[in-house]
Amino acid sequence: MYNLRTTSSFHVAKPAGTYVYDIVPVAAGLAAISSDDSLRLLDPLALNAGPVNEIKKVNADVTCLKAVSVGGEGDAVVVCTAGRDGRVALWDPRSGAKVGEVRSGDAPVVQYIESHSDDVTELQFHPTRPQILLSGSTDGLVNIFNTTITDEEDALHQTINHGASISHANFLSEVDIFAISHDEKFSTYKLVTNPEEGVEEPLPVHHGDVRELLGGEYVANVVRRPDGGAVIGVGTHSRESFDLIQLRNNPPWAFSPESKVTLPGAHGSEIVRSFCFLDALISTPPPVFLSFIYPTVLGQVHDDTDTTVTADGSPQPSVAAQSPTPQQPLHEQDGGRRKIDGTEQVDKALFFLRRYERLHPRPSRKPSGILGALGKYVVSLLPQLSAQGPASEGSVEGHRELPGPVADAVRLLEEAAQVNNPDAIFLLAEMHFYGNFSVPTDYSEAFRRYHELASLDGNSSAQHMLGFMYATGIGGAVERDQAKSLLYHTFAAEGGSVKSEMTVAFRYHVGVGVAQSCNTAVKHYKKVADKAIEWFRSGPPGGMAWVPDSYRLADEDGGVYGEGASFSSSGNNRNKAGVNSDAHAALDDVLEYLDLMSRKGDFKATFSLGRIHYDGQKGLARNMKSAKWYFMKVAKLYWTRDGRIIESEKQGLEKIATKAAGYLGRMFLRGEGVEQSFEKAQIWFQRGIKSGDAGSQYGMGLMYLEGLGVPKNSVKAQEYLKTAADQDYSPAQVAVGAMFLDQGTTADIQVATKYFELAARYGHIESYYFLAELIEQGIGKDRSCGLAAMYYKSVAEKAEPLLSSFAEANEAFEDGDHELALIDYMFAAEQGYEKGQANVAYLLDQQKSKWALPSWLSLSSIPRPPLLQNGALALIYWTRSAKQSNIDSLVKMGDYYLEGIGTQVDLEKAASCYTAACEYHQSAQALYNLAWMHENGVGLTQDFHLAKRYYDLALETNEEAYLPVTLSLLKLRLRSAWNTFTQGSINSIQDEPAPKKQWSLSEWITNFLRDDHLYYGDADYDDNYLPETDPMPGGDADGMYEDLIDDGIIESIAIIVLAAALIGLIYYRQQRQQAHRRGQEAGAAQNGAVPEVPQQQRQDNGLFPQPGDPDFGQWVAGGVGH
Question: 603-615 and 587-599 helices cross at what angle (nearest 10)?
């Protein structure tokens, strides 16, 4: 390892603040483009002398520079520039002459427009095969094209899913490719040289986050070297250094940090984005190294819209745009002079804040990997030493000095706030509330700013925040006051805040700070549901699609009390799959396994991968490009390009291929990952319809219903939609229901309601909305306010991207910022989301384990933040969650009342909570707690016999409670025996003999035929791995591809057949007995014996003798002797 020193440098002096975008080596020296839209040719041996040539205005907002070389790298005589003006220009940097130009409107020789769904960030040609083009995009894909083929589908040679937005990608060699994402994750891949089906692709090598592997804070790029290796540039702007580390093909490709070369000082604290080697100028080792940076300059920032910054630093519409009241123009003319309104200060402040956020992203608080967790333990073991010097004059305890740019921004915003600029006031409030840009959280100051803005112009966002702070008392800024909270939320709702509207609806629904009123709740919930359904229908054909973000944090740990002890993970809710089942596998493991099977030619695994990427899952965003690639791979196995079916012996291929066709048609219909094309959608739908695919039938029906690429035809639409609905496809059921509802007759309304109820089983948002409307207006059935409120509430809660903050909360929790996660979960909780309420309570709960680890082994030396120490608030949210049928929350309520957490000890309420938790849902934990209370006489009468009953019920409810229940019963029996021996006053255990049950014939038959131990080996194996999320917009599932056989029907038929056979045998035996008796009587008559004639003729008593009949005993005995 060694250092390099700077021998020469060049600085763009005019215009001031100009920064360099990129540099490339050329035959005449070094070419560079800069933010003043100039192209400069520099002499690398005399950088101080200035540019050899300078070409101004090569493009409007130039962004890209490439060397056009016909030989080796560095011998180019022509360079190519491109900019935001849609022009690609070719220049000779020596003479400054423009060699050629191409405009975006010109007819291209070849174009590929469907293979990426987001911005293309990288384009590179193969080092020896110039017809091979590599492209990288922020959609996470790296595509390889054969540019000699014009058809995009055929030209796409290979698709690499890197899994994150591509920052840089290129060829390391003729067969090796690297990719770096914007989060600095580095991987290498093999170029596919044999594209034939069934040939297994080589596995990639994932190196992970380069910053953790090599140190540093960012990656500039990877540059290929002539010796077959490569060099990666890693910078650390906080230490003002830049490192060059070799990447060698051992194989596989691996870093050699021991040969690191460091450039101390680098470019100061600025980020290096471009570097290159000039091998032609090698005089002494090492080769000449050049790097340039592009510092951001205020005068170069142009914003198209007036923006503010959200909690995470991202721009959002300004407060003026959000305000429900008309805002005054920001630049009024008063007597010919411009009125000072703070707008310029806000613009400058935003520039400083954005620059700071870009250079100093919010760090993750979560330890990364084993070393991170180990480091946290080591820090907790160190002695807590502190040294405090004398306080400086005027200092405030706990005050933290802000970084320079942030301090300047705050000063500018405060100046603007003094002239009542609403954007400035809102920004200051958000910064103090969320702690953005390293500003310490100050809830009192945030409350003051929100109150100032709300009083200024009735801003609904500020009123919403005031209502939230009064409801929660967060940070101690104000005392909790539910009445004031309701008041501010009501004002905000009147001003157009949908979140406040939802909060008011929930408060009237359950009676928080106001008398419960179902009709008022319905009124507010309907307004929110109307906005939600309007948002849903504003999407592509079929409605919006999204991955649900709401889940309970406790469920990740097996529930509030852990795996097997919580109601959510025990009893009937436990994971019943075998230990070898994929139900226990992590998503990454499932994807890795499916990818392996797909490479081996398993088309079911390929389809499953496509569906997983299309639907998305928790922890996996939707990836349309990957989904299309997998679906297309399956379709190509069954159809040729012109639609002819390929003969194949693969069982089940037709069924899977038609499902893939349905998805491909849907993607073209909706424009998901591809350019919207009704023509292509119809082609794929028709292929799927031939094999009865419900998704294809629905898509075709939707096209005829709305006239998408075909003439409107309601008859054909209904035919297709009804066929799909009959296959239990929920989107089609909603569409058919809506068509019947439009007819308006009583019979049609009944049919529509039936279809809506069928779709509601899969959680389809529109089915809930239609049912809510029908029930609220009393159409087709009597009006039910409670049921209407429930459906409207479900509609509102399903529109998570529009109304909830779960996505932000989950991201903060994953990053280890539990305080920010708590706040965002609180927003959802106040709106009535039960999962949000459970998450808030879970984060605030400090009683997660009865077993306390030693202080040296736990992280107790790192105290919980004050914001997470609020037992009273935890009890509030446990209670609200319990009222929405969360059994574990109800048991937690009992714990809080039992131990006096956040409230006074109330044993009666604790017993009531436990009793309610086990009355209907049979919580084993609640039953165990009641047994303990009876055993010890805590809050309930001490009764050993009742305690034993509750312990037995706990074990019966949850067999996993065997050990604690057995130990508790052992102790209980000892206490009961001692109580009996000493003649104590407590009711001891009294073992009752189990009565012997006398079975009737029907019960005997039933028990004989019943099999209590059915084992299905196939339950542990699923070769489809289809996710349970919504495969089509609007619901949680659609029932489209649930290929399940109802074993219950088969079993019922078998029982009926066996019972009929048994009855037939009994009837046959009875007839034989009667024939035998008649034969005996006839023989006696021939011998002269006179049979005894009863006084009354025998009557026909049916198939079986009746009780009291002389033959009854013989029949029961089974006809012994006959």
Answer: 140
Cα-Cα-Cα-Cα torsion 633, 637, 643, 646, nearest 10 degrees, comes to 170
Q: What is 675-694 written as a DSSP string?
A: ---HHHHHHHHHHHHTTT-H
Instruction: Show the CA angle centred on residue 1120, arms to residues 1114 and 1122, nearest 5°.
Output: 100
Sheet holding 156-161, edge to edge: 120-125, 132-137, 141-146, 156-161
Q: Phi, psi (5° rounding) for residue 349? A: -65, -40
pLDDT tens readout for residues 201-259: 778 999 989 888 888 888 999 998 888 899 999 988 778 889 999 998 887 899 988 88
**CA 822 to CA 813: how far, in whole Å?**
8
556: tokens are 């990740």
Cα–Cα dist 482/468, whole Å: 10
At 182-203, the pLDDT tens digits run 889 999 999 987 766 556 677 8
Report the predicted TM-score, pTM, of the whole model to 2 decimal places. 0.65
Residue 769: name the closest of 988, 1035, 1025 by CA.
1035
Mean pLDDT of 379-397: 41
- Helix residue ranges per DSSP H, 852-999: 871-883, 887-899, 907-919, 924-936, 944-957, 962-981
Phi-psi domain of 654 (left: phi exceeds 0; alpha: psi -120 through 50; beta: other): alpha
**Is residue 458 a contact partner of residue 324, using CB atoms and an 8 Å limit?**
yes
Residue the block writes with tokens 């990740």: 556
Q: How far apart are CA 267 and CA 258, in angstroms?
A: 23
Residues 6+ apart with CB under 8 A from 914: 891, 894, 926, 927, 929, 930, 933
pLDDT in tens, 9-60: 888 877 877 788 889 998 888 999 988 889 999 988 888 888 999 999 888 8
